[in-house]
Amino acid sequence: MRAFLLLLVFCLSVPSVGAQALLEAHILGPRAVELTVDESAKPFRSEDLSLTGLDGRIIPIASILPKRADTYLVVPAQDMDPTRLHVLASGKDGSQVFVRRDAWFKTLYSDKPLGAIVSEDRTHTDFRVFAPRATLVRLHLFSDRYGDLDAPDKSIDMNRDRDGVWEATEPGNHHGVYYTYTVHGPDEPGNWFHGTHPVHLTDPYALVSDDSFGKARVWIPDAPPVPVKGGRPSMEDVIAYEVHVQDFTDALPVADHLKGTFSAMAMPGLKNEDGHRVGFDYLVDLGINVVHLMPVQEYLHYPDAEWQAAFADNPYMIEQDIARENYQWGYRTTHALAVESRFRDRRSDRGLEPEPGEERRQFKQLVQAFHEKGISVIIDVVPNHTGENMDGRHLLLNFNGFDLPYYHRTDDSLRHIGPFGNEIKSEERPMVQRWILDQLRHWVEVLGVDGFRIDLAGQIDEQTLLWIKSELPSDLIIYGEAWIPPSDPEVASDPDFGWYKADSPITYFQDDARNAFKGPVSDPINPLTDRGFAGGDGSVRERAVLGLTNGWAEEGDPNRGINYLDIHDNWTLADQFSNEDWNGLLHVDEKAFRIAATLLFTSLGPIVLHGGTEIMRSKGHAPLEEVVRWTETGPLYFHGKRDSYNLRRANRFLWDTVGATTPMDYAGMLAYWKGLVELRLSHAGSVFRMGGSSPDEGHYDFITPDNTQLLGYRVGDEVFVLMNTSFEDAEFHDLPPFDGAWRLVADGNRIDLTGLGEQTLSGTIPFIPVPAQTALVWVRNPDN
Q1: Which of 22, 156, 207, 585 has the fewest CB atoms within 10 Å, counting from its CB?
Q2: Residue 69 and residue 37: Cα distance in Å, rounded?
Q3: How many CB atoms neighbour CB 42 within 10 A?
Q4: Beta-carbon neighbour count of residue 150 at 10 Å?
Q5: Which residues of the chain have pLDDT under 50?
Q6: Burial of 126 (0-12, 13-18, 19+ CB in 10 A)
Q7: In terms of pTM, does the model score above 0.90?
């Protein structure tokens, strides 16, 4: 038997050489298999095929009936078990395929509440998980956070319903009880069940997880935060500020046990050594209306003991401030309904370590603090892959062990595919679709967030995204990444599943505008050509015009794309606009930097800012070279400045720059960005916030001199902008007449909406001089 199994596993792992008669097979029911064949190999008869289970059982074939030119219905003479693997083999050429279970998988659905749920009357606690191919799921209960997994307080064999949900009801209120599962099933390719991989799994619906590797904990949700004062902004009004909790709080003047926590981020009254407001008050003062938190769902950190054993004395890791713990941005979610436990205070009021679950209260306090100031909160969610297959590792935390082939896209050998270790299979997997919706709904209804940035949204099929949007409140703020399609070519090429900008179901990051405004995302070579129009590259002026108007062919209205300059993934704007070793800590071309900001803030549609760009935040501490380091469980990759997701020092907010004037004018730059925020949200700035319909023709009236480094535009007869991105002073001629009076509010260095000096525009103007690397902005006087 063992030799038979090894032979079948080998056949499933190694494709046949040359043309195959059998191409694909799907089980439709106990007595029905749909077989796709190479038409040139037809016809087939029952005696040409053999059907075998991986348990060695040979299943006779009663008949084979033609369906289409390349498709047969194979009718077994005995019932097949859809949970088990079977192989169809051809006696003609020796080709063989395993019988896929996708057709059965897409029929499985349950609307029963999943997770650990204490009844409203507190008399009992229900436990439910979805594991459609398991033969046994055992629940283990623990009173001790650190209790031996092999010695639970109680173990319960759960009951399976017809839809693949396993459930157990325990009397009493189990709030605070720790729990795990062991999931049992056959030893077959694609299975990682307890018999061959004896590990405890945690609940993918857990509301509390003790770090990624610890136990789950039963938790009763309490009241959500108050809604945001004034309501959520419409998409066209969004000025979002992307920020990572640990990056933002690492250098705040707070006690060590608060650094890197929700509590530090929500703390008012903080000032730097020069007396300037930092932290929470700084964000309020900036004037943005949406805080976009990078991942706060429980995500993978390698255990401290493993980490410190490998790196405690490593010079590179010490220099990057990552020798003591595994710092991460968090794009490796392990428990989607749980709040990241490492953002919890590390000391309670009594000086003790707070227990798992406290992070939920502290997160809601953060949301409420912003809501009371009229600032909405959205979070970065990562439903396209899980943290179980990062850095070349194969971890068994939940989905991999509950049912890998159900939850994930796989190849024909039932192994993970995808550039990020694995890909969640959203299409034709109803319980995966439900998991995505359930997590988003939980974060809105229970934890109080106002929307989502969806990581690698292009890997989630179009129908799922459309359905999710229809099920959630219509005023949520939702945007995401359109690039990187599903790794399954059949899914990517299916017009119902694959999508890109033209048929995007959500607002997407408009990278074309980004590139036009400020150049490529990383590794610039020539300052004259790699800083976009803002840096003086006149060859991209026409694309900058498209970026301003959101006029790309695939953008049906200004809200389809969200404009930005830099974001967490790549080089910061300060580094890209530095003339000293591309290091924004040493130098920034502040004039070009301001032009880039002006382009962004005078463009149509929603915008998102990379947190800290307004104070010329730099990743100058990150090296340019790639580095590989190892722990006992495998390799770790450090990509340096181009992707600093695991380099703590480089990403830290340097709060001493707030109010500083050397080596760059940080104070002046912050004031300039504050002025742009105020302009955009003012009455005059309404011309940039057009809603979900395209503006009238001529809404932007452009002036395009022969010198392609010059650009002017009047917007909605309310705002007038002249830009000179060259290194020499210039003049604009052939200007339109100006009805009424227009006051100068931005001179390339300062912004003041009440006006800068006496320079106003009225009537016919023969020409206007514009200094080198300067953007001038006028607004029409409101009494015109």
Answers
A1: 156
A2: 9
A3: 12
A4: 8
A5: 1-18
A6: middle
A7: yes
